[in-house]
Amino acid sequence: MSEGNNTLVTEFVLTGLTELPWLQVLIFLVFLVIYLTTMVGNLGLMVLIWKDAHFHTPKYSFLGGLAFADACISTSVTPRMLVNFLDETAMISLAECITQFYFFASSVTTECFLLVVMAYDCYVAICNPLLYPVVMANRLCTQLISISYAIGSLYPLIHVSLLLRLTFCRSKMIHYFYCEFLQLFKISCNDSSINALMIFICAVFTQLSTLMTIIISYTLVLFDILKKKYEKGRSKAFSTCSAHLLSVFLFYGTLFFMYVHPAPSLTSDQDKTYSLFYTIIISLLNPFTYSLRNKDVVGALRRIANK
Length: 307
Known about the structure:
Helices cover 76% and strands 3% of the residues. The protein has ten helices and three strands; from the N terminus they run E-H-H-E-H-H-H-E-H-H-H-H-H.
């Protein structure tokens, strides 16, 4: 639909990461490799956990749930971005935009709560190892994963319902690589301050509450580790949790910059760089961060390779 001040826009053009034609092919190949690697890593980890009976434990059930959420995050953003690299004139409808945001926000919210569950699992395993089989029973683990996905599925509906009250007429160009709601507000004909306020409030609630729970869990874990008399026990405990903490800091750090404490001085390119971390890069790194530092996973992969 043509662009104009008084013409309602129902289709948009995502400008992507760059408007330089000579970079399009190179970036397309880079992100195609990243996406394929992400899917192989996450889906491969899920299959490994499902097939190997040694991994039918709460810890690996949560890790499998996290891998699925990562695969969904990447799939909600990357394929559409790759299409835009090949065809700069490709349009995305408002319905497709909302659908993309819904699945992306749902998967990100689910990951936030799964990281909390994994932090609690780590706390129980290290601080109360004798009670671990009782506390982290299979039924509770299934419930925790189901609740995380249920919250993730319901949370974006708040923003989707508020978005439906807006109309768009300022431009059909979204200067981003996916349908990020803050970018949609910039081209809205209506006052979107309520939408922006709700995104801020919900982000503060979900991100701060889950992050504080994770920090408390790991603070207790740290104190317990420092009490251990044996160096071997300390190193094993640190190894168990360090990979998780690395993923948490990268994931929450970029989310905070975008939604909880957005920096007005950020350029468009810096904004996109932060977004790339929580939309694409974290999903790529997570399966390797967890598996390559895990002797059980590495051992299982070696057994498969030797068959």
